[in-house]
Amino acid sequence: QLQLVESGGGLVQPGGSLRLACAASGFTLDYYAIGWFRQAPGKEREAVSCINSSGGITHFVDSVKGRFTISRDNAKNTVYLQMNSLRPEDTAVYYCARPRLNIRACVVANFASWGQGTQVTVSS
Fold first, then answer.
1. pLDDT tens, position by position, for the chain (124 residues)?
2. d(CA 101, CA 91)
3. Are strands 92-99 and 18-25 parallel, antiparallel or unpaired?
4. How far is residue 118's CA from residue 80's CA, in Å, rounded to a whole number?
5. How many CA atoms lie within 13 A of 117 on its CB side?
6. Under a CB-based contact definition with an 8 Å cutoff, are residues 32 and 50 in contact?
7. 50 and 70 in contact (C-beta within 8 Å)?
């Protein structure tokens, strides 16, 4: 069974950091773009950042540029999202996903296979 499992969420104070991990099982991440998405209460899910199979990075949310870093460790079959200088508005459930079509590229519309999510809460 092809699965993505997120971990690393939690409660952090404003200005703090978290590193989320997205571990793949049942398939090899090497060939896939992997995206991080988030959904805040009462809001639609939005794309945050993506890394393609070649290591190219796209940030879809201007507010995370300079604060969030996405990376991949193909040897560990895992993609990470390092989140620094966290703000209350970053509070959301964070999901990772892989594309069903054009699997190597960061095309948001093609992402369809989601993990279960990990909660990130930024609060004092």
1. 889 999 999 999 999 999 999 999 998 999 999 999 999 999 999 999 999 999 999 999 999 999 999 999 999 999 999 999 999 999 999 999 999 989 999 999 999 888 899 999 999 9
2. 29
3. unpaired
4. 13
5. 12
6. no
7. yes
Q: How far is CA 20 from CA 42, 57, 102, in A?
A: 22, 16, 25
List the one residue out of 7, 2, 3 whose CA is nearest residue 120: 7
In 1-124 the beta strands, taken as DSSP E runs, fall at 3-7, 10-12, 18-25, 34-39, 46-51, 57-59, 68-73, 78-83, 92-99, 111-114, 118-122
How many other CB atoms are found less than 10 A from the CB of residue 38?
23
Cα dihedral 116, 46, 60, 96 in deg (nearest 10): 10
Could you tell me how far CA 115 lies from the centroid of its own chain? Answer: 10
97: which 2 tokens? 């996903």
d(CA 39, CA 22): 16
